[in-house]
Design goal:
The chain is α+β, with helices and mostly antiparallel strands. The protein has three domains: 67 residues; 116 residues, Sandwich (Immunoglobulin-like); 100 residues, Immunoglobulin-like (Sandwich). The chain is 34% helix and 20% strand. Helix 4 crosses helix 7 and helix 5 packs across helix 7. Its main location: membrane.
């Protein structure tokens, strides 16, 4: 499995994550101090076996007053730090739809220029400093959306849309993970969130809204790349995958329109490199057993596999 960028709630990269980290730290330190105090009292009690103890004071003080004070303080503290989860998005928020599948992520944006839907997979790009309002759902079983460095975690339920608002305060790439056991390849259901400066994000989204640069037949297209496109169609890869500008018959699998520009393949299973891309197409079941996509090595010749992989790598 690809190592990828770090995945840690201790590497907070947004206001929600900072808040959760602060609250977690306060709870951990407070719990440690209370535990240490109880142990100290236990030691003192064992050393003073002949001393007198008033049970009423211990019951009232330790069993009623102290827990009440601590719980009330924690209630107001947590309310003060509650993240801005709202039923509707703020006016300047970026809306991103994410659907969990067994075992990959479908990501949807709205192109601001045309209003058309832009579909990608397994990778989410967001602008730095702008709230992102996620609409989260599932196409099959219960999944859970969790990017620890950005904070928050939300279950993704079939037939229902959940919401989660996050924000990145600096550029970077952070790894997320499905946090609800969802089947055989739950551990290989990762995603990556790439935060970019607003100008870079706008340029990326505008490019994603277009068909892949090499998707359509073109006189300038190298012949080997063109043969890869022909092999992709001849072997019916388009029965499951959409490549805008080439085939849009099915959306059973991830949209591959710009697959060559993504960081990883198979929801974080392997890095997106030419050799790994060819291996992924040929030996999918060996790399990710149980995935819906069969291994192609037994039904597609080696030459065509290499052509298909080379063509997919051009889709940026």
């Amino acid at each position: 499995m690809s190592e990828g960028p770090p995945q840690s709630a201790l590497r907070a990269a947004g206001p929600v994550a900072h808040t959760l980290l602060e609250v977690s730290t306060v709870l951990a330190v407070g719990g440690t101090l209370i535990f240490a105090g109880v142990m100290l009292l236990l030691v003192l009690a064992m050393r003073r076996r002949n001393g007198t103890v008033n049970p009423r004071w211990w019951l009232i003080g330790g069993g009623l007053v102290f827990p009440t004070v601590v719980l009330v303080a924690l209630f107001f503290y947590s309310e003060w730090h509650r993240p801005p989860w709202r039923p509707i998005p703020p006016p300047d928020a970026l809306i991103v739809g994410v659907t969990g599948h067994m075992w990959w992520w479908e990501v949807r944006y709205r192109d601001p220029a045309t209003g058309a839907e832009v579909v990608t997979a397994n990778e989410i790009r967001i602008p730095v400093g702008r709230p992102v309002y996620f609409g989260l759902g599932s196409a099959d079983v219960i999944h859970s959306f969790w990017v620890p460095s950005l904070g928050g975690k939300m279950d993704m339920l079939p037939g229902r849309v959940q919401h989660l608002q996050l924000q990145a305060d600096r550029p970077g790439t952070w790894r997320g993970q499905c946090a609800e056991y969802c089947g055989e390849q739950h551990a290989r259901m990762a995603l990556h969130v790439v935060a970019e400066e607003p100008e870079a994000f706008d340029a990326w989204l505008a490019a994603q809204a277009k068909p892949a640069a090499t998707a359509a037949t073109s006189p300038a297209l190298p012949r080997d790349v063109e043969r890869g496109r022909e092999a992709f169609l001849a072997h019916r890869c388009n029965a499951c995958h959409t490549v805008r500008g080439v085939s849009e018959e099915s959306r059973l699998g991830p949209d591959l329109t710009h697959v060559g520009s993504r960081l990883h393949l198979g929801a974080g299973t392997v890095p997106n490199e030419p050799a790994q891309l060819a291996a992924w197409v040929a030996h999918t079941q060996q790399l990710k057993p149980g995935a819906r996509m069969p291994s192609s090595a037994e039904r597609i010749g080696e030459a065509d596999l290499q052509l298909i992989a080379a063509w997919l790598a051009q889709l940026k």
